[in-house]
Amino acid sequence: MKNKFLFWLMFCIAILLAIYIAVRISMVSMGIGGILSDVKKVSVYSDNGKASDLITRLGIDHTDKHIDLNDILARVASDPDIANVAVRRLPNGEIKIRADMRVIVASWTDGENYYPLDDTGAPINKPSSTRPENTLVFSGQVPQDLSKTIKIVKQTPNLFYSIDRMEFIEDRRWDIFLLNGMKIMLPEENFEQAITKIDNMNKQNMILDRQIKLLDMRDLSRPLVKL
Questions:
Q1: Same domain (yes/no): 55, 119
Q2: With the C-alpha atoms ordered 221, 226, 157, 152, is the resulting torsion angle positive or negative?
Q3: Residue 217: CATH number of its domain
Q4: CA 179, CA 46: separation in Å to the nearest integer?
Q5: Per-residue confidence at 164, pLDDT binned at 50, 70, 90?
Q6: Which end of the chain is more exposed for a tag (fewer CB within 10 A), N or C?
Q7: Is residue 95 domain-shared with residue 143, that is, in the same domain?
Q8: For residues 179 and 13, what is the distance between their CA atoms, to the nearest angstrom?
Q9: How far apart are CA 128 and CA 170, in angstroms?
């Protein structure tokens, strides 16, 4: 009888402790637990390492012991350089911010200004009248995923640094406009093969340095040159 009483007593105590701990964790997480809910630390993490200055940019004060999670989320949502973010508060008083920063990989131009783009083709920040260095510039329609296109073109430095801009024609294929005025028409398919062929032609005949108006690569078996 005594053992049964002790068992139920311990069982009830365990239930009460579990409820107490759960309530305290909830109160701390919501910032309504008095001194236990004070913020002890704010940490920022990012896969691409671009979030180190995020705390300063968002104006988060380390001395503020009552930071509101909703306020942090609102500030983060207003930052155009952030693609995805997760904010959570730990029972030990630490706030963790996990952010995926948008990285500029190219630019889009309307003929006057340049708009920085991420790898999805979405604009980042405000436009500039100054052409960015060492990035591809696009005009017209832009496909949703630019990462593969940029990677392939960057593998041929002679072509990459000769490009003025690239334009996606009728959502099917690319035209490349070089700084020397040459226009290169690429096929709908075999984009990488076409870029490799141009690179080989340039290695053999320095074709990118010649006074050529048009290089038609839509039929890779029969490239056409117009002087």
A1: no
A2: negative
A3: 3.40.50.11690
A4: 37
A5: very high
A6: N
A7: no
A8: 78
A9: 27
Per DSSP, the residues of 71-86 read HHHHHHHT-TTEEEEE
**pLDDT at position 35 over 50:** no
Residue-number span of the structural domain to which 81 is assigned: 36-102
Written as six digits, the tokens of 51 are: 């979030």
Kindly report the average pLDDT of the chain as a whole number.
81
CA dihedral 170, 133, 212, 142 (to 10 degrees): 0
- pLDDT of 21 reads 61
3-state secondary structure at position 175: strand
* Residue-level pLDDT at 156: 94
Where residue 95 sits, what CATH number does that domain have?
3.10.20
Cα–Cα dist 21/99, whole Å = 29
Phi, psi angles (nearest 5°) of residue 129: -80, -5
Using the predicted structure, report yes or no on whether residue 142 has a pLDDT greater than 90.
no
Please state, in angstroms and rounded to a whole number, the distance separating the CA atoms of residues 29 and 185. 58
Residue 119 lies inside a defined structural domain of this protein: yes
Write the CA distances from 189 to 39, 171, 174, 192, 197, integer angstroms. Answer: 55, 12, 10, 9, 14
Q: What is the pLDDT of residue 50?
A: 62
Domain count, the chain: 2
